[in-house]
Amino acid sequence: VYVIILPVFGLVSHSLHRGGLFSLYNMLGMVYAMIAIAVVGYFVWAHHMFTVGLDVDTRVYFSSATLLIALPTSIKVFSWMVGLRRMALASSAAWYVVAFLLMFLLGGVTGLVLANSEVDLVMHDSYYVVAHFHYVLSLGAVFGLLNGVLSCHELCSGYRSAAWLLRVQVVLLVWGTTCIFWGMHLSGTLGLPRRVPDAPDGYLGTVVSTTCGILVVLLAVALLLCASLEASLWDTQQLRATTRSTNPGMHNHMLSGMHSLDHATRGQLMLHTCVSTSHRASMHLEE
């Protein structure tokens, strides 16, 4: 699970850095937090097995390790929220970052509930677990990947999708997924087990909510495809036409002076130049 979500963390941080007015907030702390998540993630595997008859000491250890992983995750979430304040909130990337944070926080809160081994004995194999897993991994990964894919699409194709289409799409996607998985949370809390083909009539409301949410999600996916086609076929907002290029004279002078630098300094200078150019281009596009 953590192996899948960690690259998405990097995409979200890159998006905030690319669209922010300043450099990424608490970058060193976020790097250490990601390392801590990757390390601790190796030692929480038994929190899926609380019901197999583990002794009390083992359950206490894995419950504590699962709760401990919330600390570096909180560092990243709060750093992203501060970085979001430095970002142009009117941009489409900011909307996807907000949606990612919303889904990831909702799933993280329910994960803290399931980290308690005694509560997990009651909630295990219910729709509550299904909803928690999809909020954290599926929805968090989907919104982070959509943010990264849209950014790469702009840079690779030279066209950008219409901002209003992307905003409508992300709102519909959040609405649809919330109808699906929040209803599953309620069903799991009321005791509905998973993998059961039929359920009592008391769960009819949550089942209807989930079904309507699926239809809204399908509409959001279709709208995303329309936005991509609209950008590639009919959009006139070309990145190549609106991006400010580097001063040719300064660029040639800098390249000629780089021959006297060592490899490490030359690489750092080229990386700084690429990041600065990308930052200026994104700022100009938001204007």
Automatic annotation (TrEMBL):
Gene Ontology biological-process entries: electron transport coupled proton transport; mitochondrial electron transport, cytochrome c to oxygen
Membrane topology qualifier: Multi-pass membrane protein
Pathway: Energy metabolism; oxidative phosphorylation
Protein name according to UniProt: Cytochrome c oxidase subunit 1
UniProt superkingdom: Eukaryota
Localization, UniProt: Mitochondrion inner membrane
Gene: COI
Keywords for the protein's UniProt record, in alphabetical order: Copper, Electron transport, Heme, Iron, Membrane, Metal-binding, Mitochondrion, Mitochondrion inner membrane, Respiratory chain, Transmembrane, Transmembrane helix, Transport
Boundaries of every Cytochrome oxidase subunit I profile domain copy: 1-234
Assigned GO CC terms: mitochondrial inner membrane
Record-linked Pfam families: COX1 (PF00115)
Protein's job: Component of the cytochrome c oxidase, the last enzyme in the mitochondrial electron transport chain which drives oxidative phosphorylation. The respiratory chain contains 3 multisubunit complexes succinate dehydrogenase (complex II, CII), ubiquinol-cytochrome c oxidoreductase (cytochrome b-c1 complex, complex III, CIII) and cytochrome c oxidase (complex IV, CIV), that cooperate to transfer electrons derived from NADH and succinate to molecular oxygen, creating an electrochemical gradient over the inner membrane that drives transmembrane transport and the ATP synthase.
